[in-house]
């Protein structure tokens, strides 16, 4: 189980049930998070390997993701003292370089030793006070868990409910904002990429909706599985706080929660009365400008982040987003070839970070995931909460190319057949290959490659 999943699990789902959230049955606590890198749920029938299998584990969950060799090498360092003189310039460069993936020149970046969940908490507690009214959307497990956190922090949460498989409903947001004539809503909170359902919401359209009603609310965005993979423009979209985690598109291990805050958000911090200690922006803002930190940084992960950002900078963020779209389209072509459907129906919301695939009625998607792991050492994501047993998930974000994803499609195809799904061998993989071949860039000449 991933650290992010563990940190989100404890206490939250049962408290949600106690508050009457009918969408999440109590048994979800035990079963919802059995997705990470071959980890088995408590009552799983998934067999353990009797020996170390040949080859490598094929990791295709939507985080943690595959780590580039350059990043792995960068993290292989001896113990070092972050109070030595070299650290200040290194850390200031990390904070500056991080702005690239957020798409900002104006925002303030902060790195917390922690996870995306810690970033969530920092976004809420540094900008809001107990009793403040916020509006948000529920269309998957992770949007639900952010709502749960908001309520546990004492916020007055207006929830716009959505189908699991849809994104943020801007028309319903417009109705809520229009009715808020006294401008009491302090923040609009959106999960950009919902990994439960494979949905990417339209943040620019959310911003346009807020502007159309001249609403001064803060815009807080969970970009945990989007930032660094999908197009994200913090400044242009006028996001006030955005959050991501190291184990997603940055392709480094779990352990860093990264936040970008606008001047408006930092101004709100001065009047926010929510209790905060470890995740207090003020401590970071006091020490970071000189390259210092208020508590111990995770140096190997910072070295990994430096190497990962270098790779992304060399590729170019527009090319990174285009690569993720190309991979996702190939995966979606494979789903069509299998005769199956994605949980997300509307093309404008289909995620380029992962694909969530519905299995036929009468088939338990857990069996597909179990077979994939047991027979092919392939780690796929299971269905969570409301879609448990109905879908499986293929992650294709971060350090990923066509050949890598082809292996996942091949393994998933074999697992589907093994699980009794009527799929013709080669039907999905061939569709993906055909798409990638037809849309491939021209092969560079040897002279160009050596130039």
From TrEMBL:
InterPro entries: Aminotrans_V_dom, Aminotrans_V_PyrdxlP_BS, PyrdxlP-dep_Trfase, PyrdxlP-dep_Trfase_major, PyrdxlP-dep_Trfase_small
Keyword Cytoplasm found: no
Keywords assigned by UniProt, alphabetized: Aminotransferase, Pyridoxal phosphate, Transferase
GO molecular function terms listed in the Swiss-Prot or TrEMBL record: alanine-glyoxylate transaminase activity; L-serine-pyruvate transaminase activity
GO biological process, one term: glycine biosynthetic process, by transamination of glyoxylate
Aminotransferase class V domain span: 80-370
Pfam families: Aminotran_5
Entry keyword annotation includes Transferase: yes
GO CC annotation terms, alphabetical: peroxisome
Cofactor(s) this protein cannot do without: pyridoxal 5'-phosphate
UniProt similarity note: Belongs to the class-V pyridoxal-phosphate-dependent aminotransferase family.
Protein name: Serine--glyoxylate aminotransferase isoform A
Taxonomic lineage from the root: Eukaryota, Viridiplantae, Chlorophyta, core chlorophytes, Trebouxiophyceae
